[in-house]
Amino acid sequence: MKKLWMNFLILIIFLGAVLITVNVIDSRVTNKHRKDRIVVTNRITEEIEQSLSHSWMISSLYPYGVVPSELAKGVFYDRKSEWESIYGKDACPQDVVIHIYSSEDIQVIEPEETTKEYTRSNRKDYNSGGSVISEIYFPSLSLGGSDEEMEREPIGLIEYHFAEESNKIELIILNVSISVIAIIVFLYTLWISVRIIAPFNKLSEYPERLSKGEITEKLPETRNKFFGRYVWGMNMLSDKLESDRETIRKFTVDRQKFVTTMVHGIKTPTASIKLLAEAIATGLYSPDGKVNDKDAELAEKIKKNAVEIETLVSSAMEEGTTAIFDYDPKVEPFYRKKIEEYILEEYGNRLKMNRIPLEINAEGNPLINSDFTGVCRILRQLMDNAIKYGDGTGITLTMKKNEEGHFITVSNNGEPLPESEVSFVFNSLWRGSNSAGVKGHGIGLYESRLIARKLGGDIRMRVNENSTEVTLFLT
After folding, report:
1. pLDDT tens for residues 167-194?
2. 70 falls in which pLDDT band (50, 70, 90)?
3. 237 vs 20, 162, 182, 286, CA distance in Å?
């Protein structure tokens, strides 16, 4: 999932970079157009003022007699193609309108308040088209003055009309499109994370846990059916492994019974051979009752071989009961809350289907330094026994910690074992008097105790009047 979000982040960065690049390029192009438009409007304004000045110097006419449309036509419209060829079509205005102030006498006419904002130092924005207004100044001479005494006075306004930028709509569409794409990609990534990646991450843990024997519960089918074949295959594998485990348990029981029978069958004659060898060595069977050195030597060899046979038989007996349960613990720290989550995940649905209440009592969430897989194998055996041998009225899981270590107790209601049988429940191949009609081989609790002791702990059982408690102790 982290890789998916990393790819999404890379895509968003790429889209952001594209968006920023496009906007920066557009901004630079717009700034160039703005500068070009400023140059064009200033040039047109200067030529209009020069035309007014030239007209006044030739005819001594004051500019109020100038026809604005003819002035605009001569300076701009007749030369529009020339302006566009020099500065570009986007930089040149579409229309030029000249407004001349009206006045009765020869004096400087101040522009009205509504036109003061349109001075050269405070023009409208050139980016988005529209109108740009500049003032027209006309040189005048004071009476009796000279050229140095010439001063400028505003006589009107020039209104330049520009077309809208041709790429503005495309730029807006591009910005909106990239934003929409980013939102869609985010929502799609979120959907994949929630509906596909997260469930699959949970499903991907199943094979490993199944191989370790941590779980036997079937995988539930997802609502979206994306993993139907995978779930079906994993459930088939789970059934196959459970069947193989059952076969192994059966062979283990048969093997152990065979080894036990063989051992007991060999022990008796071996013990008799040892006794006979000792009798021969003491001269018990000599005619004169004296010890024969040669017979004593042979008797000692016979006795030695008999002892070796007993050793081999004992070894075979031990291997027959423990080899199949070879277990190598991997001790790592984990929080006790993980055990509660495991029990709920493994047995929650099963207990609901069987309508067996489950109560979990836990104090705090301390750290346990043990093998989580081994603990799960033990608890699975205890929970299965509680379901099989209980009366279905309830199972309680209690987890506590004190100075000695951690105590995890599984208790169930129902008729308990007789007190006289409690000491035998952890023996191999032993089944209690309450096991009639209940499937089993008598090796589950034996295996659990072996694992618990390899983890440095132990298992104890206590029977009450109408309940049974089995406690796992971990240091």
Report:
1. 677 777 877 887 888 888 888 878 777 7
2. confident
3. 53, 76, 42, 70
At 22-68, the pLDDT tens digits run 777 777 777 777 788 888 888 888 888 777 766 554 444 444 445 66
Q: Can you give the pTM of this predicted structure? A: 0.51
| Residues whose CB falls within 8 Å of the CB of residue 285, separated by 6 or more in sequence, listed in order | 279
Alpha-helix residue ranges (DSSP H) falling in 323-397: 337-353, 372-389
Which amino acid would we find at residue 191? W
Per-residue pLDDT tens for 280-289?
Answer: 777 776 777 6
Amino acid of residue 39: V
| Residue 334 pLDDT grade (very low, low, confident, very high; cuts 50, 70, 90) | very high
Distance CA 34, CA 28 (A): 10
Whether the Cβ atoms of residue 44 and residue 76 lie closer than 8 Å to each other = yes
Rg (CA), the chain: 51
∠ at Cα 231 (225, 232), nearest 5°? 105
State the CB neighbour count (10 A cutoff) for residue 97.
Answer: 15
DSSP string for 442-474: S-HHHHHHHHHHHTT-EEEEEE-SSEEEEEEEE
> In the numeric block, which tokens belong to residue 333?
């720290």
d(CA 448, CA 452): 6
Q: Please, are residues 260 and 320 in contact by the beta-carbon 8 Å criterion?
A: yes
Return the structure tokens found at 42.
């200033």
DSSP state letter for 137: E
CB 339 within 8 A of CB 214: no
Beta bridge partners of 139: 152
Tokens 């009765």 locate to 104
Number of C-alpha atoms within 13 angstroms, CB side, residue 456?
A: 12
Question: Which letter does DSSP use for residue 154 in this model?
Answer: E
Per the structure block, which two tokens stand in for 440?
Answer: 């089993």
Residue 332: DSSP 8-state: E
Burial category of 354 from C-beta neighbours within 10 Å (exposed 0-12, middle 13-18, buried 19 and up): exposed
* End-to-end alpha carbon distance in the chain: 37
Cβ-contact 425, 445 below 8 angstroms = yes
Q: How far apart (Å, rounded) are the C-alpha atoms in residues 110 and 156? A: 9
